[in-house]
Amino acid sequence: MKLPEEQQKAYEHYQDDLHYQASMFESSFGDGYREGEAEGEARGEAKANKKMVLNMAKKDYPIKTIAEVTGLTEVEIERILK
User: What pLDDT, on the 0 to 100 scale, is given for residue 80?
Assistant: First the structure.
């Protein structure tokens, strides 16, 4: 780097600060963020399954067929249909 020594030190300090901030975020929020992301994916999958069950039921598919397509149990499907 062809910066004056003072600016090099300021830039290095800036980089160190960014690393510190990233480290603090990861230690404080990292696990919770990943847990929230997994929970969101599970909710999205459940919502998609429910929509699929309802659409298939409207077209008079048997519960057994719905279970095979969605991977849900017949009990779970009946719960959705109520």
Answer: 93
